[in-house]
Design a protein that fits this description.
The protein is mainly alpha-helical and 432 residues long. 63% of the residues lie in helices and 1% in strands. It has 19 helices and 2 strands. It has helices at residues 14-17, 32-44, 59-79, 90-106, 113-132, 141-163, 165-168, 186-205, 211-228, 231-246, 253-272, 274-282, 287-291, 296-305, 310-315, 332-361, 366-381, 393-405, 426-431, and strands spanning 323-324, 327-328. Helix 6 crosses helix 8 (186-205).
Length: 432
């Protein structure tokens, strides 16, 4: 299936579709398979590490499922785009360029054969994005697929909490919410909840969904975000929504009213619930532990102080598990520097800069606001979360932003039916 299908029924010319001669055709319909492929990409990025689950799942089985999901996503994307029609995209082009330092640093096998496997995974991930880029048209189709995908993931988290609260909120994570069916960590749950809350709130603000439909998503996701105690996701949500709604203030009265009420409610909450908010953010930690970002700063200092060769500085040590000396790096920029060197860091910075620059140059609109939210959320989260240099949910968030910033394809007018010339009798021509 090539995907060259127009709304209105089977092909058969203007009369079959109801399109008048010479009129612009309707945009190409997005096959349902594209949404399935997007969901499989999300499944691939869920990861295989986390707390113990209700039903013990071997890590090898989880990795087989996630990698199989990526292969299936690529196969489905290829099946609906057999003619390999893609849209020019600076975002995916830069991701493709990121493969260069990844491969250069991984071929010497310093990080083991797993580095080459991760390079193959990233290449397949980027290839799938290229195939799906054909349907990036500045619309909300990928936004809705994104929300549905992570809403389903959070639904499994809520089901695990209902079935086994002790497993879903173990003491190992300080009573924070984890995935009880699939091994999801609290930061993952907080990230997914914050992203769908922000996108759904913006869709409701732009009247692209009903208030009841938005509440069905925002309320349970907000509860799960609070139970996950994820500070980075909360700050990213608040700052991202502020920037996104701020981009609409000059053109949307609804955005101005929402912003005014939000500021008022935030001021009241800051007065009445200051101690509760402070306690939630501290999570029972000491001020020293809080200031050192739960020990992250020590890992960052050790990583930066480690001796490196010129090749390692330029191209890194190869794609790994985003850890240093057995401890998680939890910083996208340092993780990229460690694994893909200064070259990879410059490419990732270019990705954020290009997407942010394009968003700023676009006229105010709801798609632009949603893109600003996703870009700002990923930029804020990159300080305490890793993932911008490898196949991850953060790259999927940025891919949705790129689809929102893509210009709608120019519709090519259908050729008008040639006007049939009336046959003039010979005797009439002779009279002339």
């Amino acid at each position: 299936m090539s995907g060259d299908v127009t709304y209105g029924g089977p092909p058969g010319g203007p009369d079959a579709t109801g399109t008048p001669p010479g009129a612009a055709p309707r945009p190409a319909r997005r096959p349902r398979t594209v949404g399935i492929a997007w969901g499989l990409l999300g499944l691939n990025t869920l990861g295989s590490a986390g707390a113990e689950t209700i039903v013990s799942l071997p890590r090898s089985l989880i990795q087989m499922v996630t990698m199989g999901a990526l292969v299936a996503a690529f196969a489905l994307a290829l099946a609906v785009n057999l003619r390999l029609r893609i849209r020019p995209s600076a975002f995916v082009s830069l991701l493709t360029l990121l493969l260069v330092p990844s491969v250069i640093s991984s071929v010497d096998l310093e990080s083991g054969f797993g580095a080459l496997f991760r390079c193959s995974r990233l290449a397949l991930f980027v290839g799938t994005l290229w195939l799906l880029s054909r349907w990036w048209d500045g619309g909300f189709t990928f936004v809705r697929s994104h929300i549905r995908m992570y809403y389903a993931v959070l639904g499994s988290v809520a089901a695990g909490l209902a079935v086994s609260p002790g497993t879903a909120m173990p003491d190992l994570y300080g009573g924070r919410l984890v995935g009880a069916w699939w091994p999801l960590t609290p930061p993952q749950i907080g990230q997914y909840a914050a992203v769908i809350i922000g996108l759904t709130a913006l869709l409701a603000l732009g009247r692209r969904t009903t208030g009841a439909g938005a509440a069905v998503v925002i309320v349970p996701a907000g509860v799960l975000l609070a139970l996950s105690h994820t500070r980075t996701a909360t700050v990213g949500l608040l700052v991202g929504l502020t920037l996104a709604i701020g981009s609409l203030l000059l053109t949307s009265a609804a955005a101005r009213r929402f912003f005014a009420w939000t500021v008022l409610c935030a001021a009241v909450a800051a007065v009445w619930f200051a101690s509760a908010v402070q306690s939630w953010f501290l999570r029972g930690q000491s001020q020293e532990n809080f200031s050192s970002l739960t020990g992250r700063a020590k890992v960052w200092d050790a990583l930066l102080a480690a001796p490196r060769t010129t090749s390692e500085r330029l191209f890194g040590t190869g794609l790994g598990d985003k850890s240093y000396d057995g401890l998680p790096i939890d910083n996208s920029w340092l993780a990229v520097y460690h694994e893909q060197g200064l070259t990879g860091t410059a490419i990732v910075a270019a990705i954020i800069a290009v997407l942010g620059g394009v968003a700023l140059l676009r006229p105010p609109s709801l798609p632009r606001a949603c893109a600003i939210f996703l870009i700002s959320y990923c930029a804020i989260s990159s300080y305490t979360e890793a993932g911008l240099g490898d196949a991850s949910p953060y790259l999927l968030h940025l891919a949705v932003a790129a689809s929102l910033l893509a210009a709608p394809p120019a519709a090519t007018p259908l050729p008008a039916d040639p006007v049939s010339r009336r046959r003039v009798p010979r005797w009439a021509r002779e009279r002339r």
